């Protein structure tokens, strides 16, 4: 008979068992379910709600069940519906009536809310580590490329020269925000819901604070209805994960472009690229493409979760069981993408020559020619117009501004002097942009040094 089967006169249809049960995906929370139950049992004993001996036997047996699960000795069954009832059923099969006392003052509604928080908190620690690895990888690539001049783009048109270090450090900023979002999320989610019961709390004198501190929570939930129906923390984590994927996806797009023959800014390591079954010459950036592609399913999880809760009346509804596959898949996806992406980044070769060549074309120093005139007294709009004419002239002659003779310069403005050539060299263009946040070598170096202290 089912643990809740008392009021039923026939067993559930097989199709309903299959449909209703969540064990095939929530079994991964077994360790958290057991940890939560041990804390609950300990508290029940401490409060005299069950006897000390019963409490100790439950805690001990749950520990043995955990070990058996880890040793692969336990088989879960859909008859027991979900991980919570599977473990309780196993407990009862081992210690009989004593095991039946565990669920005193508890509902699966607050139990699942607890388990989900514990599970996601554990997972977030791994995510933290992976994001930190990504940040370290980015710092070391940036450090090696402080002098690597490349074109910076807007509208994917060459705009102004920058360094590869500066470009890479833009991603560092994005992934550090992801890391800090995760830290913020942890603060808000680290609240203990047990004691909310089914929705209206319980009459037993539970010590909720004790359970919270046993399980490493900062505080306890303040409303029993919200305690069981809140899934904000799941949605919020799905957003944090989506943002990570959005960043990986933008990065992927650049990796794909840069490794194309047309750009040739980077060479992916053979170990991180793949071939074609028909075209012998091909070396494809599959890792980046898959990371870009997988962003879709993580965004999908976020949408799925928001849609799942948006019409739910308070408090618990079975719809909420649907939160797990979504958030687990999003977590698994991000955890699969981050390490392989790091590996791809740390092994790729930077084609400094190609980046420099790229920066030389496309009039990336045109703004600096205008700024040169401005610094010698011409209003910026007039300088802009002068340089616009120079660009048109160069395009016509198939040349670049740096290659013009002094006579040619003078035809556009007699302000030009010999110092123009150094004023618009790519090195000057980059290194004069030394405001905080700018691409100048010394500026970027200072930023890297500051961030390195965090690791
Ligand atoms: N497996 C359920 C879930 O994931 C556990 C809570 C079930 N509660 C209930 N009253 N049916 O949401």
Main attributes of the structure:
elongated; two-stranded antiparallel ribbon; 5% strand; 455 residues; 3 domains; Ribonucleotide Reductase Protein R1, domain 1; two-stranded parallel ribbon; Fumarase C, Chain B, domain 1; 19 helices; binds arginine; 61% helix; Fumarase C, Chain A, domain 2; single chain; mainly alpha
- As an assembly, this protein is single chain
What count of structural domains? 3
User: In CATH, what is the class of the largest domain?
Assistant: Mainly Alpha
CATH topology group of the largest domain: Fumarase C, Chain A, domain 2
Order of helices and strands: HHHHHHEEHEHEHHEHHEHHHHHHH
CA radius of gyration: 31 Å
Largest sheet: 2 strands, antiparallel
Helical content (DSSP H or I, runs of 4+): 55-70%
Q: pLDDT below 50 for ≥5 consecutive residues: which ranges?
A: none
The CATH architecture category of the largest domain equals: Up-down Bundle
Give the DSSP E fraction (strand runs of 2 or more residues): under 5%
Query: If strands are numbered along the chain, what order do they take across the biggest sheet?
Result: 1-2
Anisotropy-based shape: elongated
Q: Which secondary-structure class do the elements indicate?
A: mainly alpha
Any ligands, ions or cofactors bound here, and which? Answer: arginine
Tally of DSSP β-strands? 6
CATH homologous superfamily title of the largest domain = Fumarase/aspartase (Central domain)
DSSP summary: helix tally: 19
On the 0 to 100 scale, the average pLDDT is 96
| Measured distance between first and last alpha carbons | 55 Å
